[in-house]
Amino acid sequence: MSADTGVPRGPRLAVDVGSVRVGLAASDPDGLIATPVDTLARDVPGRKERRTPADVARIVHEVQERGAAVVYVGHPRHLSGAEGAASAAARAYAVGLAQAVAPVPVRLVDERMSTVTAHQALQASGRSGRRQRQVVDQAAAVVILQYALDAERATGRRPGEPVDDERSQHDRTAHGGPVGDGRATVE
């Protein structure tokens, strides 16, 4: 546990899910500051393919390499709080990610305005519009993660909605306990 919160110590990751790119950010083990990691090309397998997408495999690698305690996935909502198509896509991505990184928890956190905030920060730092596109997703992931870190410190709990690995939930129900660890293999 962290000294000032009831949150277990360990690096945290955040993911900003887009239709083309996925931004990735990480924190230090004490959860003080979020830093950019990478912008990944979104890999969407064909309908009949049964493989781990390359972007998910990279996130799994980062979770394992860093010993991540939790993965936060940005949950885009309308300003009214309502969910739309982007929200459903992020939720589906989070469920697949939860299956791949289990037993590390995955949580959906409100990301309203994270991309706008990221664009403003990049513009303030002197990045042109063309150069912003290359890093805006990881900058948005930093905004998402810093929000989550600040919320952890303020409340002493992990923010957001837990994402249940639906497959594991089914396995636990059908078999009376966990089956395997659900981790994707990274080659």
Topology:
Layout: E1 12-17, E2 21-27, E3 34-41, H1 54-66, E4 70-75, H2 85-101, E5 106-110, H3 114-124, H4 129-155, E6 161-163, H5 166-175
Parallel strand pairs: 1-4, 4-5
Antiparallel strand pairs: 1-2, 2-3, 5-6
Helix pairs in contact: 1-2, 3-4
Protein name: Putative pre-16S rRNA nuclease
Enzyme class: hydrolase
Main location: cytoplasm
What does this structure look like?
Helix 1 crosses helix 2 and helix 3 crosses helix 4. The protein is of the alpha/beta class and 187 residues long. It has 5 helices and 6 strands, in the order E-E-E-H-E-H-E-H-H-E-H. The protein has a 6-stranded mixed β-sheet with strand order 3-2-1-4-5-6, with helices on both faces. It is 42% helix and 19% strand. InterPro entries: RNaseH-like_sf, YqgF, YqgF/RNaseH-like_dom, YqgF/RNaseH-like_dom_sf.
Supply the key terms:
187 residues, 5 helices, 19% strand, YqgF/RNaseH-like_dom, EC 3.1.-.-, hydrolase, Putative pre-16S rRNA nuclease, YqgF/RNaseH-like_dom_sf
Q: Shape, please?
A: globular
Name the average pLDDT: 80
Helix content: 40-55%
Give Rg in angstroms: 16 Å
Structural class: alpha/beta
Count of helices? 5
Order of helices and strands, N to C? EEEHEHEHHEH
Function: Could be a nuclease involved in processing of the 5'-end of pre-16S rRNA.
Organism: Cellulomonas septica
Pfam family, one: RuvX
Domain YqgF/RNase H-like: 10-118
Offer a concise description of the structure.
Helices cover 42% and strands 19% of the residues. It has five helices and six strands; from the N terminus they run βββαβαβααβα.
